[in-house]
DNA sequence: CATAGTTCCGTAAACGTTTACGGACGCCGA
DNA sequence: TCGGCGTCCGTAAACGTTTACGGAACTATG
């Protein structure tokens, strides 16, 4: 005899009463409830999740999907840990558990999702690293699984999303650099089809155009989102016949490798080239200090959670409006890396 | 009508046959199997995980437990991503899925485990960041849940473990530094009760003793496992009346902050002080290059997975011996940071 | 033709919960 | 005394699978 039956037998009451007692139902004598709880602790009883899920059709689990594998590895970093922190702060209030769904780089992300989540594994999903066209969005929306994306995508199923304000970053960076006299400005973008790359580059292009400048193709560097990618960008940049006088780095970690490549060539950020990047715990310790854009990842996590819950009937009352479809602003942290001013001839 | 019943109704066959067809049982006509699979795809049927788990008592999910929260955040890093990669390479062969169980720093880790895993959420667990005394080990062993730990612990339930060879690192580091004439050698250790701290410091002490040297208390620096911790260590070290001539850093990311603190004071690794650390994708880009210990995290992940599976009856035949209770060797990568030689007076 | 064996499929029980329903019992007011 | 009401509890169905069991149809063998 196992599970709730064992408990009921031990107490000589029915399993219905045991269940009600454990779940805090009102129609159970307080004395019996006390006995049940005591016995549960004594016998080390914990309700079986499968049985509960099967009956209730709910798992109390929210999945945060992320991809493993070496090339994306640099992105994992502390970024997600901080976001998780915020997400959990909200989930904790509703007995929801957050787990990270780790999709191997060898498997198709949509297949993975279909396999693990459409089976009723999670009550809701948070999607990150949205691609330009993202089959995962279609899948979840077809299956009516509540979800929210961190990052926009062209695949529109009416889902709520949050995203970093890459447009704002692009605009502010370009304006700032142009104001300092830069005319030849480089940008980086991710190596893959993650949507933010398109958004960022396009806005850079527009911002430059508004100043009467063009974004030259040879100044758009593709880079894996890790240190090695940044190093590669640095090498390529240095090998150009006509170097740019400034660059905007879209990923957090690439600044490290980029700095190194410059350093090896005796090129110093802030003196020989202006560099603007993204904040990360590492960037903080770069020298010369990196001018970068930062935001509160924890707050972003909170917003993600609230937005997701606002789409779920059970929780909607707590989060009537949510925070959906919002660009998350980034704040400029002034450093020394973009101190270089170009004097017009 | 939902689920497998709907499929059966649609095909006008019994649910038993549908189930057998989907699960690749031999006792089903190939033609019917074809029809079932086609219909499943057409209707978008995916088996419900709860129903399956309830019946089979198995979930096909392995949990990798990790803690979120800011102070440990630096440790997350790319370390785990690489380990996951190896774990998944093995799990992929057995239709097992890896998920990261994210325990909020606000919840007791053992409570968390009991809540999420004892409920039958996962078939097995990988525990990381084992504390000196770790209640999670007791819990899992009481509940007979297969698990393996990455890191040793004094809490012994006969569980299999793998660990990095911190003893080897300690010994080699000390030997190397002493051979270069260093007498006053500092070490770092984690701020919390994670077991590796004790192991590492003790072995350093022994190694020093074997050379007739003592490990002075003021030269043992506690540090959070992130950049900020490293910076703090650097500041403290610099403020000592009598500075050490060498230091061994136990965590991967602290070198970054440590370098920065030194740099601010005009102290250069390899010239003014010898530094030995751990490899990380960042460390690779430090200047002067960091002498550090590295290992294949992917291989470690593979071993973790194989060891876990070897303890699970269903998979035992594939992994008869496992790789349990092994210290994972680290290889020394020579850099410039420990080039300083002390000439004896 | 009888028998045995093989191939395939349907039936129904079981997994561990939750919960709608109804009943037993005691209490109160009419 | 009776009906009504409130409190508490037991019964049993339901959730969606898997699988042991048995049987029908067919084939092979003598």
TrEMBL record, chains A, B:
InterPro entries to which the protein is assigned, alphabetical: HTH_LacI, LacI/GalR-like_sensor, Lambda_DNA-bd_dom_sf, Peripla_BP_I
GO molecular function: DNA-binding transcription factor activity; transcription cis-regulatory region binding
Pfam family, one: Peripla_BP_3
Top-rank taxon, per record: Bacteria
CDD domains (UniProt xref): HTH_LacI, PBP1_AglR-like
Domain HTH lacI-type, chain residue ranges per copy: 2-56
Keyword line: DNA-binding, Plasmid, Repressor, Transcription, Transcription regulation
Record-given protein name: HTH-type transcriptional regulator AglR
Protein's organism: Sinorhizobium americanum
């Amino acid at each position: 005899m196992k599970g709730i039956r064992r408990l009921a037998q031990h107490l000589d009451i029915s399993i219905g009463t045991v269940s009600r007692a454990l779940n805090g139902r009102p129609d159970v004598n307080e004395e019996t409830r006390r006995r049940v709880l005591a016995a549960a602790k004594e016998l080390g009883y914990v309700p079986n999740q499968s049985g509960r899920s099967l009956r209730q059709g709910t798992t109390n689990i929210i999945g945060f999907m992320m991809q493993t594998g070496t090339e994306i590895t640099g992105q994992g970093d502390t970024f997600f840990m901080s976001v998780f922190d915020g997400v959990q702060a909200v989930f904790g209030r509703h007995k929801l558990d957050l787990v990270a769904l780790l999709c191997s780089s060898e498997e198709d992300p949509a297949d993975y999702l279909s396999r693990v989540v459409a089976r009723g594994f999670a009550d809701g999903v948070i999607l990150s690293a949205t691609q330009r066209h993202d089959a995962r969005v279609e899948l979840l929306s077809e299956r009516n699984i509540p979800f929210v994306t961190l990052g926009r995508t062209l695949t529109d199923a009416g889902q709520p999303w949050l995203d970093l304000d890459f447009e704002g970053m692009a605009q502010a960076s370009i304006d700032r650099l142009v104001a300092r006299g830069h005319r030849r400005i480089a940008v980086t973008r991710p190596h893959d089809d993650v949507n933010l790359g398109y958004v960022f580059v396009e806005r850079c292009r527009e911002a430059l155009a508004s100043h009467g400048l063009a974004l030259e193709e040879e100044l758009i560097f593709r880079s894996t989102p890790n240190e090695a990618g940044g190093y590669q960008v640095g090498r390529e940049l240095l090998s150009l016949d006509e170097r740019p006088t400034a660059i905007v780095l879209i990923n957090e970690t690439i600044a490290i490798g980029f700095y190194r490549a410059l350093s090896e060539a005796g090129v110093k950020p802030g003196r020989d080239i202006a560099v603007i990047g993204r904040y990360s715990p590492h960037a903080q310790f770069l020298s010369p200090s990196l001018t970068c854009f930062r935001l509160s990842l924890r707050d972003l996590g909170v917003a993600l959670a609230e937005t997701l819950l606002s789409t779920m009937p059970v929780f909607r009352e707590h989060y009537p409006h949510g925070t959906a479809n919002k660009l998350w602003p980034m704040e400029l942290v002034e450093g020394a890396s973009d101190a270089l001013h170009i004097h017009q001839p």
